[in-house]
Structures are given as structure tokens and as C-alpha cells.
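Let's practice the habit of predicting before peeking. Look at the sequence and jot down your guess about where helices and strands might fall. Then scroll down.
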Amino acid sequence: MKSLHMFIEKHKLSKEAQKDLMRIWEQSFSSDLTIQEANLSSRSDATIISTPKPEEGQTLPFQSSLLAPSDSIPNAEQTVRLSTNTRTIDMYERMGLLGKGGMGLVIRVFDKQLKRSLALKLLNPKLTKDNASCVRFIEEAQICAQLQHPNIVPVYSMGTQGEQLYFTMREVEGFHLGTVIAELHESIVDEKWQKTKGGWSFRQSIEILIQVSKTIAFAHSKGVIHRDLKPSNIMLGEFGEVLVIDWGVAKIIGDNKDQNIKTSRSEQRIFDTLSGEISGTPSYMSPEQANGTIHRQGPWTDIYSLGCILYEILSGTPPYVGKTAKAVIQRILS
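Done guessing? Here is the structure:
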């Protein structure tokens, strides 16, 4: 209850909003639920979220993303509830940076209780005040945790420390498919495929893509599309396993009642995006992604990206390239 009063004081809610929030707390919140973020802007029209324009090859998470009008949200001051446990970031010993991007960074940590190394993903501190980004970060963790499949990296836990959101997952040691593709084309002799120095063959690259296709088919059967398939998001583990990673712009499709995967965002219908959002990586985007027609995106969107990856395996480059992300998108749409 103390955290609730702190939240009310911090955001200076109206008396009416305070009553509504108290009623929701008493009726719905259990002891293991805390208010993490809230949409506090009373608005009758859409709010635009913009992000820096990325370079070719980078992911565009929420370029020109439009939040749903307030009439599609139960309350103008909609809270996002995140179930947490007693684990905090302090329970993990930091061991080094594994990677970083616009949405956050991934670090190697040591779990002091279970005595094992893990990968811990942190939301970019600059985005902790952005409700939509927080909701999407939580949704990524919830999707990966529920998509239990040998070719999808498992998520172990999710939590907060202060305003910092994080989740932990298996650490994957290996390299991505892009490395294999580059080595294959460097090894071509007299226009014939040869094995690479690492022992990879053209046939193996196709077998990898088949495994990825089966993994994505599984996700589709659960009502999830990835929307950012590319060679760098296909990891090859130290035991030969193929892993589809980075579900940060994944989207749940279909009627919520029929969905196999449930997330806080899909169940509460908060921060639904409208036409105008461009998510993914330009060189592997489908036309419906490139022009931001959200309602036309579906399983075929991922299938198009798989076709782009196959094109790159065969030719050495994606089907559409350019100096900037904008240039690539214009080529896709032309």
C-alpha cells in the first residue's frame, strides 16, 4: 500500500483518479503485484512516439509508432501491472557486456543462488519513463517464456529494481547465420560451393533455414509473429543448436480469446498500435511492414523475411540494400 501512495503522490493524480486506483488495488492487486508504469495523459487523440532513424541493418523498434486512442483503453490512467518475485538485479553478479541495441543491453551475469551464468537483458534507462517501451519489453519476456521450443531461448525470470526492468535467459555461446553466409561466399571456387574453414556447407545453411522455418511455424501456431527475422537473429549454438533470438518487436495476432500466448499487453489491450508503425530491419522487411500497415501483417510477413534470408544465402546479399534505412524502404515500396 505504501508504494501505491508514493505512486499517487509522485504523479499528482486527481481525487477521482485516486479513488479509481484504490478500488483497482483493493479488487485486483495481490501482494506480489506492483504498479510499474501508467499512462497518465488524458487524451482524445493519438500520441506519436518517434525514435532516431536507424542505419541500414539496425532494427527500427517503434518508428512513427501511434498509440491507440483513449477510447480503446479501459481507463485514461491505465496501469501496467507486472508480477514480480523477490529476485532483484543485486542477486546477480555482473560479468561483462554481451551486446546492446536501441532498446537495451544484454549482459552476462552469475546467478549467486543457482551458481550458473545467465544472460540478463536490461531496458534502456532512457526508455524507463516511456510506457509503451516498458510494455513492449515486458511482452517480449512473456512471449519468449511461453514459446517453449528447442529453438527458442528460454526466459527464466523477470523483475525490476527501482524503475529498471530486466529479464534473465539462457546465455547462448556461438555465432549467427550471417557469419556462415559470409564464409560460404568467400569459399566459392569456380562458381562452386565449397566447405568453409569452419566446416560449414551450403547444404547445412539450407538445413539451418529449414529449422528456423519450423520454429517460426510453431510461433505462428501460438498466435505470434516475429517481425524481425534476419541472419543476425539466428544463432548457432556451441552444440549445433539453431536458435531464433530477439523477439523484441514480435506481435500477437488474431482474436485475443483464441490466442495461445497471453501477455499483459494483449489481455489488457493497452498501447495497441495503429497504421504507421514501422518495426523490423529494412533489408528484410515485407512491403506491409515497410509502409506500416499493421492490420495486414501476419504469418506471411515472417515468410517474406525467410525468403529474404534464403536470397542472401544464395547471393551473399539481401534482396534490397541501400545507404540508409529510408532508401531501402523506398526500394521495397517502389
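How did you do? Residues 58-333 form a domain with the Transferase(Phosphotransferase); domain 1 fold (CATH 1.10.510.10).
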